[in-house]
Specification:
about 200 residues; alpha/beta; Rossmann fold; nine-stranded mixed β-sheet; two-stranded parallel sheet; 5 helices; globular
Length: about 200
């Protein structure tokens, strides 16, 4: 069993990732929470936790961890400190800790932030975090979904290194992609854009 640190475990998508990992026979989730008061939510499910704040030192959070899923976000309130600099802190810790794979939840449009003025600050933060990860020498997979919905997942997506069309995708299906990307036979050092589609979630 590999220990998977889920950064952003209390978020809507992060919780789904934790549940999928808990149900897996290969992975053991380690839920990273910001406050001690959030620990019990996971302990009652027999899920390991670690307390860490992305605005502070997080080097301790990667101890005894094999791989990382970064699904944290500030919800637009503190994008530079959390979505950008917080991600960089986890990447630095991953590099120092010899983490074997880092799966980053990014956003479609992070490669061209100026195209969506309303989300420019957020997308620039995501772009900077993505580029920092790509330059870090930590093995990575960057997943850039379209608009996130809370609809039930279908298990089917459209995925490519770059998609011409915008679209939406359920958080449930995004969580499935993030979890599948952890597999050793999955991609390494690649970026994928994903939206709802007709193809089964697979790297084949």
């Amino acid at each position: 069993m590999e220990n998977i640190l889920v950064v952003g475990a209390t978020g809507t998508t992060g919780k789904k990732v934790v549940s999928l990992l808990k149900a897996s026979q290969y992975f053991e989730p380690v839920a990273m929470v910001r406050k001690e008061s959030q620990v019990d939510e996971f302990l009652v499910q027999d899920i390991k936790t670690v307390v860490g704040d992305l605005t502070e030192d997080v080097s301790h959070t990667v101890l005894d961890v094999d791989k990382i899923v970064f699904a944290a976000g500030s919800g637009g309130e503190n994008v530079v400190q959390v979505d950008q600099e917080g991600a960089k802190k986890i990447i630095d810790a991953a590099k120092a800790g010899g983490i074997r794979k880092f799966v980053m939840l990014s956003s479609m449009g992070a490669d061209q932030p100026g195209k969506v003025p309303a989300l420019k600050e957020y997308l620039v933060a995501k772009q900077n975090a993505d580029e920092y990860l790509q330059a870090s020498a930590v093995p990575y997979v960057i997943i850039r979904p379209g608009s996130l919905t809370n609809e039930k997942g279908t298990g089917r997506i459209q995925m490519a290194n770059s998609l011409d069309n915008q679209g939406s995708i359920s958080r449930e299906d995004v969580a499935k992609v993030l979890t599948k990307a952890l597999n050793d036979d999955g991609p390494i050092n690649e970026v994928f854009e994903i939206i709802a589609g007709n193809d089964l979630i697979s790297w084949d």
